Amino acid sequence: MESQLIDLLRRYLDVHRDLLRCAEEKRAALLRGDLARLQDVVQRERACVQRLAELEAERAALVAKACRRWGLAAESVTLSELVRHIPKPEARAEAEALGRELGALLSRLKRENGHNQELLADALAHVEASLALLADARRGGDVTYAPAGRSGATPVSSVFDQKV
User: Fold this and answer.
1) Neighbours of 11 (CB within 10 A)
2) DSSP characters for the chain?
3) 43-52 as b/e, with b when 16 or more CB fall inside 10 Å?
4) Contact of 13 with 101, CB cutoff 8 Å
5) pLDDT for 160 beyond 50
6) Among 34-38, 44-48, 118-122, 144-148, whose mean pLDDT is lowest?
7) Do residues 79 and 99 lie in contact, with contact meaning Cβ atoms separated by under 8 Å?
8) d(CA 118, CA 116)
9) Domain segments of the chain: what residues?
10) Does domain 2-112 have CATH number 2.60.40?
11) Please, what is the average pLDDT of the chain?
12) GO biological process: any one (predicted)?
């Protein structure tokens, strides 16, 4: 049981490391405007998410098995609680270290995804501004300035759903 839990934690770490690399590559692609690279990274992210779904199913089965073995309530048990029930001190220490590493990795991934979300929001704002200019020009509006330096463009409703 202990070795299965440790193996599962290692595989979670591997997938999250891959996700962090993807997030870092995504940021670089966004900054360069490299859409081909961005699409490649998104495909790799999807594969990671699929692997996480598989690991999650495996985790649920392992948690149920461990809870039966150690007499714990499966619906409310956390990974930390499971680790505390590992009888061998060396295995428990290794699982605790892997859990801490996973927590730190998740924090880094969350931060990187936040940066990418900001970059995407900026890119979306730029695209919407460009579309507004094009839409105004198509309607025959002045895409430069009106007399006295005021903008001649009229507001255009958003083409994109901004919900993130």
Assistant:
1) 16
2) -HHHHHHHHHHHHHHHHHHHHHHHHHHHHHHHT-HHHHHHHHHHHHHHHHHHHHHHHHHHHHHHHHHHHHT--TTT--HHHHHHT-SSHHHHHHHHHHHHHHHHHHHHHHHHHHHHHHHHHHHHHHHHHHHHHHHHHHTT--SSB-GGG-B-PPP---SS----
3) ebbeebeebb
4) yes
5) no
6) 144-148
7) yes
8) 5
9) 2-112
10) no
11) 85
12) bacterial-type flagellum assembly
- 84-124 per-position pLDDT tens digit: 888 899 999 999 999 999 999 999 999 999 999 998 888 78
Residues 6+ apart with CB under 8 A from 79: 9, 99
Can you tell me the distance from the alpha carbon of 55 to that of 53, in angstroms, rounded to the nearest whole number?
5
Give the Cα separation of 126 and 30 in Å (integer): 13
First to last CA, the chain: 40
User: What token pair was written down for 58?
Assistant: 């495996």
The angle that helices 89-138 and 2-32 make with each other, rounded to 10 degrees, is: 30
